[in-house]
Structure formats: C-alpha cells, structure tokens
C-alpha cells in the first residue's frame, strides 16, 4: 500500500496468567509469556506484518 508503517514502543512487565485466557484474548499456549509481546505478535499476524 506504500505506507511506511508504524513504529510503536509497547511495555507491559506482566505475564499472561490462566485467568487472562479468553477474557483478554489470550489462549492457553500464551500462559507465562509477556503480555505486550503476545498482544503485538497477535496484531501483527492478523494484519500480515512483522
């Protein structure tokens, strides 16, 4: 599309807990992972970005 994209800095020191699965958009394999990394990865994958 010719758009240079966005550069974001995302920080969340928290990790995904079992209670976050479902109600915050995480899945069981995300448990124990950093919330910010999981969220950004999911968004990028949804839009075909890296």
Nutshell version of this structure?
This protein has one helix and no strands.
Report on this structure.
The chain has 50 residues and is an all-alpha fold. It has one domain. It is 26% helix and 0% strand. The protein is built from one helix and no strands. The protein has one helix at 35-47. The longest helix has 13 residues, at 35-47. The protein is elongated and about 40 Å long. The two termini are 15 Å apart.
Provide a count of the helices.
Answer: 1
Topology, number of strands: 0
Instruction: Catalogue the unreliable spans.
Output: none
Share in β-strands = under 5%
Helix amount: 25-40%
Structural class computed from helices and strand pairing: mainly alpha
Could you give the topology of this structure?
Blueprint (H helix, E strand, L loop, with lengths): L34 H13 L3
């Amino acid at each position: 599309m010719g758009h240079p994209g966005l550069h974001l800095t995302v920080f969340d020191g928290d990790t995904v807990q079992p209670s976050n699965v479902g109600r915050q958009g995480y899945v069981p394999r995300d448990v124990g992972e950093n919330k910010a990394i999981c969220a950004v990865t999911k968004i990028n994958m949804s839009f075909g970005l890296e």
